[in-house]
């Protein structure tokens, strides 16, 4: 990649709407890629930009954090309330109602894949490895509080493996053992994350079972569990998942949640290239009702201890799958939430399906459990695009739409990848918010990293979405979500994907109305303490 280092520690000035000059310091060590429209922030042994630390709000003021295509990375500015003005000719007028409240946030995070661990291991100093984990989980990082952990190998592993590969029909799982991959790539970095944030919620997801449990005798591609629901094969697979939870516990890693299968419908498809196991809606309902649910409960992992999340697949079929499983009261009694992935795209219909799940099953939370960029389209669009701004916007757009349709958080895919977007044993390369350089002496924080931090830092667990209504103006290219935090701060997050700035007037957020300017191609988080 052809990079050019051009500035460091730029000091900037924002000319505000109300003509107040505000200064701040922008700590990103910028590297621009000639092929892309924005830039990455470089972290090496000498320097890494910390993100802003709490307190995020100041009394009688608005605190504004800005990331945009051209200059800013979570850059903070403070505007005293007395300087806030209304501009009657604003483009959009919004009314908030902080008393009208919806779902509470569970959190934000990413996945401790083998690929992530392989890449973190390539960093040439322990200090840099620690800094990377702090970038995600630390107070001066993105403050992630969720981690997803694949059970055994996934496509983002450098080989296929399960925890019981050597002996066929080992129904008692006598030969079950965690793999070197767990000890080398996953557990060390999960533990580092937990040292920095003791409240990380971990959830586990399997891709494929031991081959001898699958009809095809293969980890990859079409295939389901051998036998029938309730048979020794199905019961063994439930026990296998429990053995995983117990083996991690022996290594002092405990889980908050479990999805019974990553992308279960892929294993019903004849052309699917990597590790999977097929479950139709009916099969999943039966597996939970007869095998997994009772086994988890008997092992002390009932819903009070471990959140079982069904589906874990694309947003377009989330409603039909959830309905098929949760309509069965017995299966539903073991389930806590519905997990979904973004890969069917950001259509209004797909977001509406999330709301339909909530409306029909309001006691089950919704959580976005996987998403990444660079996974589809023409070959030229696949994999890593260092400094790509569009991908920061698609992330923000999907987080906002998900939250506005009852989701309780958003979990990214690989925490870290290499410059090609791997390793991945089937070369299913994608992009990630942090990329390790080829020689391991530095890593790059992409626009996507800052985009997610606009949510993960400010929407602490327990933050509640509040009502907002667009009174006037068109939201073309603009998305917004509004929350109140457990410490009673109003948080407004806006993404403006337009090439021009947009003025938005807010009403209902306290004594005064105010108009703010949202710059071209920007993501902004506004934090205002509420006095009531
Ligand atoms: C940036 O990413 C978007 C979304 O994946 C893609 O459409 C666009 O072509 C990328 N731009 C560049 C310059 O790679
Ligand atoms: C109000 O907004 C309009 C339209 O963007 C702009 O032309 C005008 O200068 C603004 N007025 C003030 C006082 O900022
Ligand atoms: C899977 O392996 C079993 C036992 O080794 C064998 O009986 C069966 O035919 C195999 N199935 C396929 C699809 O290869």
Question: How would you summarize this macromolecular structure in one to three sentences?
Answer:
This protein has helices at residues 114-122, 126-137, 180-196, 232-250, 281-298, 318-326, 329-332, 348-360, 390-404, 447-456; strands at residues 3-15, 21-33, 39-44, 61-68, 75-80, 92-104, 107-111, 146-151, 201-206, 257-258, 307-314, 337-341, 365-370, 407-414, 416-418, 434-436, 442-445, 464-472, 478-484, 489-496, 502-507, 514-518, 522-529. The protein has 532 residues and is of the alpha/beta class.
Helical segment tally?
10
Q: Report the strand count.
A: 23
Subunit organisation of the chains: single chain
Question: At the first level of CATH, what is the class of the largest domain?
Answer: Alpha Beta
What is the makeup of the main sheet? 9 strands, mixed
Overall body shape: globular
CATH homologous superfamily classification of the largest domain: Glycosidases
Roughly what is the average pLDDT, rounded to an integer? 94
Q: Level of helix content?
A: 10-25%
Bound molecules: 2-acetamido-2-deoxy-beta-D-glucopyranose
Strand order of the largest sheet: 5-4-23-20-19-18-6-21-22
> Roughly how many Å apart are the termini?
52 Å
> What percentage of amino acids are in beta strands?
25-35%
Ranges with pLDDT <50 over ≥5 residues? 1-25
CATH architecture of the largest domain: Alpha-Beta Barrel
Q: Structural class of the helix and strand makeup?
A: alpha/beta
């Amino acid at each position: 990649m052809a990079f050019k280092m051009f500035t460091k520690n730029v000091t900037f000035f924002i000319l505000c709407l109300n003509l107040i000059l505000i200064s701040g310091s922008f700590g990103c060590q910028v590297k621009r890629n000639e092929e892309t429209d924005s830039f990455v922030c470089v972290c090496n042994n000498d320097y890494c930009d910390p993100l802003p630390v709490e307190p995020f709000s100041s009394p009688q003021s608005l605190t504004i954090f800005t990331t945009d295509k051209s200059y800013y990375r979570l850059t903070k500015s403070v505007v005293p309330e007395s300087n806030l003005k209304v501009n009657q000719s604003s483009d959009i007028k919004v009314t908030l109602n902080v008393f009208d409240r919806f779902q509470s946030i569970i959190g934000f995070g990413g996945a401790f894949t083998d690929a992530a661990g392989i890449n973190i291991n390539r960093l040439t100093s322990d200090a840099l490895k620690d800094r990377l984990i702090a970038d995600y989980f630390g107070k001066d990082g993105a403050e992630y509080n969720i981690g997803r952990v694949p059970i055994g190998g996934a496509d983002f592993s450098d080989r296929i493996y399960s925890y019981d590969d050597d002996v066929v029909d080992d129904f008692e799982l006598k030969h079950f053992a965690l793999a070197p991959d767990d000890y080398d790539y996953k557990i060390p970095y999960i533990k580092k994350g937990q040292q920095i944030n003791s409240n990380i919620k971990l959830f586990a997801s399997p891709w494929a079972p031991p081959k001898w449990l699958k009809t095809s005798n293969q980890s990859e591609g079409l295939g389901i569990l051998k036998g029938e629901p309730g048979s020794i094969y199905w019961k063994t697979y439930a026990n296998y998942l429990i053995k995983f939870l117990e083996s991690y516990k022996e290594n002092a890693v405990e889980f908050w949640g479990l999805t019974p299968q990553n992308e279960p419908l892929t294993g019903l498809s004849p052309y699917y290239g990597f590790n999977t196991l097929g479950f139709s809606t009916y099969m999943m309902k039966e597996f939970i009702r007869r095998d997994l649910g009772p086994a988890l409960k008997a092992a002390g992992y009932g819903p009070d201890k471990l959140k079982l999340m069904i589906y874990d697949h694309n947003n377009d079929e989330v409603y039909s799958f959830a309905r098929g499983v949760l309509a069965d009261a017995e299966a539903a009694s073991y389930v806590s939430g519905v997990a979904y992935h973004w890969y069917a795209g950001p259509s209004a219909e797909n977001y509406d399906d999330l709301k339909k799940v909530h409306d029909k099953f309001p006691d089950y939370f919704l959580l976005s459990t996987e998403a990444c960029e660079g996974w589809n389209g023409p070959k030229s669009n696949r994999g890593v695009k260092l400094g790509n701004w569009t991908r920061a916007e698609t992330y923000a757009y999907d987080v906002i739409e998900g939250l506005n349709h009852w989701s309780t958080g958003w979990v990214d895919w690989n925490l870290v990848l290499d410059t090609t977007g791997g390793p991945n044993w089937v070369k299913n390369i994608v992009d990630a918010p942090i990329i390790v350089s080829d020689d391991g002496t530095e890593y790059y924080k992409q626009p996507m990293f800052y985009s997610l931090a606009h949510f993960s830092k400010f929407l602490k667990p327990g933050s509640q979405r509040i009502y907002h209504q667009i009174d006037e103006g068109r939201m073309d290219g603009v998305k917004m979500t509004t929350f109140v935090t457990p410490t009673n701060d109003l948080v407004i997050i806006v993404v403006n994907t337009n090439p021009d700035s947009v003025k938005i007037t807010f009403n209902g957020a306290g004594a005064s109305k105010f108009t703010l300017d949202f710059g071209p191609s920007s993501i902004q988080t506004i934090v205002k303490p509420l006095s009531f």
